């Protein structure tokens, strides 16, 4: 085995370690979040009123875990898709990836703060909602930061840069560089103004509308191809049915 082959094997091994480490962080985060779901002490011997009150708190925690599982899984699938194009690494990629994983690791803490939702008007509810939404936008921003580093160094670090740009929808991710900080500034202003935390969910709705418009503008065909499997299967059956009804030769 010559020196070049040894270097290539070492490079592949080190890159595999980076990916495996990232996957382990995601798995640990999901495990920690579900471990936090537990009933309080003496739950079986309490009165009906206390039981219903505690069940309300548990149901809110379960909702927070379910929502967080969706977000963490979404970031994991994006991370897998992005690193599917990576062929090499450098110090900058390590730093950007660790910063992204740091933001992801905040999810268990953010979920634990959702206990304040029992009283949305309380200080616990305000801080809980603020921290949770801020964590989501931080993750979005840091993922676009990570993708941006790979795009800027794609010739050296990635396979098929043009295909990667289309696959990860880079122009949409690039928009996160100003959308996420803008949303964080809006949240900060709403917090100072004393806006009730339940209205903060509108920032997520605005984010969804803006990113959908950007994606539709730059990637109209990809957006149509990304419909849920059931809808695509139903659409394909409709096409087959229409073809069957056409006269022969048309």
TrEMBL record:
Topology in the lipid bilayer: Multi-pass membrane protein
Record bears the keyword Calcium: no
Location in the cell: Membrane
Keyword annotations of the record: Ion channel, Ion transport, Membrane, Potassium, Potassium channel, Potassium transport, Transmembrane, Transmembrane helix, Transport
Pfam families hit by this protein: TMEM175
Protein's UniProt keywords contain Transmembrane: yes
Annotated InterPro entries: TMEM175-like
Top-level taxon of the source organism: Bacteria
Catalytic activity, reaction form: K(+)(in) = K(+)(out)
PANTHER family according to UniProt: ENDOSOMAL/LYSOSOMAL POTASSIUM CHANNEL TMEM175, ENDOSOMAL_LYSOSOMAL PROTON CHANNEL TMEM175
Protein family (similarity comment): Belongs to the TMEM175 family.
Protein name (Swiss-Prot/TrEMBL): DUF1211 domain-containing protein
Source organism per UniProt: Mucilaginibacter boryungensis
